[in-house]
Amino acid sequence: MPEVLEVESYRQLASGTVGATVVRGWADGYAAKKLSSPSAWSRAVKNLTITDTSRRGKLLLLHTSGVTLGMRFGMTGVLLIDDEAGIDGLFYGPHSYQSGWIRGGLEFDDGRKLILHDPRRLGRFEIDPDLSELGPDALTLNRKEFDEVVHVTRGEGRAIKARLLDQSVVAGVGNLLADEILFRAGIDPRTPTGLLNVDQKNRLFRAFNLTMRTLQRRGGSHLGDHMPARFPGGLCPRDGGQMLSETIGGRTTYWCSLHQH
């Protein structure tokens, strides 16, 4: 699924449209679900010029001469500019493209088309999206922001895996990234956030930044060190320990029974 690294790749691809003017926009009922109607997208985007691109977590932002356009990609959404994709493939997504999976997009005055391709139909278009619901961006998270991520005011708090997945706490971390960060930090994903000690917090911060840099260089969240063992009965690539699995924060989670504690 597209996490912060994949959406950053989409942003880089979309930046090639800066300076182009929209002559037509279209959306199906799925992509326009957060709008009043599919035609609201068409009306809002016509004659806008793309002036810049940015991103907050998994939310892609197209800045224009008028409103800001937002794109969310759900589980399987891919950004295309004509036939060029922002990423080659998704772990849980399609590895091929079909016209029936196109949910909408923008057509520019130079003939190019920016397309949302999404088999699972969970991607969304937004107009002037509200960023207040999102925490700091995962790719630029500094130590002060990280300390807020792991700060619990009352009780033990939620499991650290669930905390990392909360987009209002830190924007952009998805299931694969969270598992990889905790794998590298050697922390059991079930650990209540409020029970992390100083050493664990330091390890987690280092692993967070290292994971972002390494997987961005490799090409995405699905290229982590623990991915070869992400299946029932898998063995840890680091120490051969049995990989355990449980649903945490609503997502299937894998971790090593030996080095993650």
Describe it for me?
By secondary structure, the protein is an alpha+beta fold. The protein folds into two domains: 124 residues, N-terminal domain of MutM-like DNA repair proteins (Alpha-Beta Barrel), CATH 3.20.190.10; 119 residues, Orthogonal Bundle (Helicase, Ruva Protein, domain 3). The protein has six helices and eleven strands. The strands form three sheets. It has a five-stranded antiparallel β-sheet with strand order 1-7-8-5-6. A four-stranded antiparallel β-sheet has the order 2-3-4-9, with helices on one face. A two-stranded antiparallel sheet has the order 10-11. A hairpin with a 4-residue loop joins strand 7 and strand 8. Helix 5 crosses helix 6. It is elongated, with a radius of gyration of 19 Å.
Tell me the β content.
15-25%
Question: What is the rounded distance between the termini?
Answer: 27 Å
- Strand tally, please? 11
Structural class: alpha+beta
CATH class of the largest domain: Alpha Beta
The largest sheet has its strands arranged as 1-7-8-5-6
Q: Number of folding domains?
A: 2
CATH superfamily of the largest domain: MutM-like, N-terminal
- Which runs of at least 5 residues are low in confidence (pLDDT < 50)? none
Question: Can you summarize the main beta sheet?
Answer: 5 strands, antiparallel
Helix content: 10-25%
CATH fold annotation of the largest domain: N-terminal domain of MutM-like DNA repair proteins
Shape from CA axes?
elongated
